[in-house]
Every structure is written in structure tokens, then in C-alpha cells.
Amino acid sequence: MPTNNWSRILPGIALCTAISLAAMGLQAIEEHWTGRPWLEALVIAILLGTILRTAWTPGPRWTPGINFSAKTLLEVAVVLLGASISFQAVMQAGLGLIIGIAAVVAVAILASYGLCRLLGLPKRMAVLVACGNSICGNSAIAAVAPVIGAKPEDVASSIAFTAVLGVIVVLTLPILVPLLGLSLTQYGVLAGLTVYAVPQVLAATVPIGLVSTQLGTLVKLVRVLMLGPVVIVLSILGGRETSTSKTGLSLKKLVPWFIIGFLGLAALRSFGVIPEAILSAILPTATMLTIISMAALGLGVDLKVLGRVGGRVTLAVTLSLLVLVSISLGLIWLLGLS
């Protein structure tokens, strides 16, 4: 990148980085006092960015770097996240459960999207809520957002409401064990299919039992792997929508470069090509870039927009989660898990 371009984007990147560091510091304080991060730095960065944007509107000096952080850095982070995926996890789960997990994700996305649209949410926000609820919460929303061209307000509101509900799920899901008479195996599968993040799966299953924790983590990892196919499908659908007047479609138009990079790194990780030393550096870098991009998205949020959609988003996320829990219990019954 030319020097003059760097000089244009550095102030905005520095601002987003400062917000991200503050968010990480607040998460560390939160963990120290509560023992776990109820609100992750990713969510805190959005909130801090939104608060700052409410008090102050960034001028032309900051805008190029904020836009670069919200788009390009997020795309780079998605590529690096591919290194966290190992296809071997799929083989360990068993074919029946893998097909079941894929079916749950697909049905949940369609049902959630339909609910969101019935409640009057815009198409892009409906996709974000559906993917966040059905796959892996914040990470899915962050990965899908650049593919569908989601607005910062849509991303921020989707992540904010999904994050709050994610905490509620962790606290309330164990109640279903005595309420429904679930076994350790059944509860592990249910937690893996419904809880948003891997750390949250641990928080929801460790108090119940080791079997639930092991199975829940495995199911959750397989569920996360569904993000790749979902994003590719969304890319293809988006490419078709924007190219209906053209005679041909290129791979670049159908599948963005960062999705190809994501799958490439996942393949390298699965074949053991990436050295452990490099792998240990890639994942924290991906996390940091994601947090920076979320701070940038927060700086682009108009609170008036969030106020207009807040109630509908809350209802949509809640109903979507209830649908996901119902579908997951149906899969457990269908597979005859005991």
C-alpha cells in the first residue's frame, strides 16, 4: 500500500486499536472479578465504539481508517480464523450426528430468517441473526457480515442482542436437565447445538458432568464447521443477485477472496502443514483483528437506528433460539440418544 494511503488510514486504525485495547482490559477485569467473561472483548469493543460515536462524530481524518478496519481487517481476520478449524473433528463425531448437526443448522437458519422477516427486520439483519443463532453467535455474524454487505448498525445490534441472550442461555440451559430428565449424553448434544461459543459450552456443561462437556464441545466444533459451507452458499446467492444482468459469473464474484483464504488455511491446519508455533500466533492475531473491526463497526453505529429495531431484534433472537432448542431436542429424540 502506498505511503500516502497509510497516512490516511493510520489515525482511524489507531483509534479502533485503542478502543480494542480498552475492551480487552475491561474483559480482563471482568474475568478477575467474576471468574469468566460474561461479555467478551468483541462485544465490549462494539459498545465502547457506539458510546464514543454517540458523544462524538469522527471527522474526515478518522473515517478512512475506520472504514478500513471495519472491512479489510475483518476480512483478514476471517481468513486467519480458518486456522482454528480442523476437519478431523468431523470424522470423530460419526456420520449420523454430523448429518443431524448439518440439518439442524440448515433448518434453524431458514426458520430464524423467516421469523425475522415476519417481524419486519431487514433482509441483511435477518441473515445475521439467523446465522448467529444457528451456528456460533458473534463469530458467525462477524464472518457473514462482509459477505452480505451488512450495515454497521445491523452487525452491532445483532451481536449485542445475541451476546446478551448467549449469557442467559448458559445460565438457564442446565435447568432443562431435571426438567426434561436429560441424560449426560443428551444434554451434551443439546448444549453443543444451542450454545453460541465454545467457552460458553464449557460453562454450561462442566457443572453437569464430564461426558456432557466432552460431547458438547465436540458437537459445538462440528457445528462451527458449518460456517464455511453457509458462507459459501451466501456468497453464491449474493453473487447471483448482483449479477443477474450479466452473462457470466467468475469465482471471485461468487466466493470472496477471504472465504477462499479461510478454507485454504482450514485445509492446511487439517493436514498438519501449519507449525504449532505459527498456529499459536495466528489465532490471537485473528482475535485481535476481529475486536478492532468490531470497534470500527461500533464507531459507525447510529443509536437512533438501534432504538428503532431493538425490540424486534430482541424478539427475533429469542424466538429463533427457542426454535433452535426445539429442533435440537427433536434431533436427540430422532437419533435415539440416551
TrEMBL record:
It is a multi-pass membrane protein. InterPro entries: UPF0324_pro. GO terms for cellular component: plasma membrane. It is found in: Cell membrane. The chain crosses the membrane at residues 38-56, 68-87, 93-115, 127-149, 155-180, 187-209, 221-239, 251-271, 277-301, 313-335. The keyword Membrane applies. Keywords: Cell membrane, Membrane, Transmembrane, Transmembrane helix. Belongs to the UPF0324 family. This is Conserved hypothetical integral membrane protein. It comes from Microvirga guangxiensis.
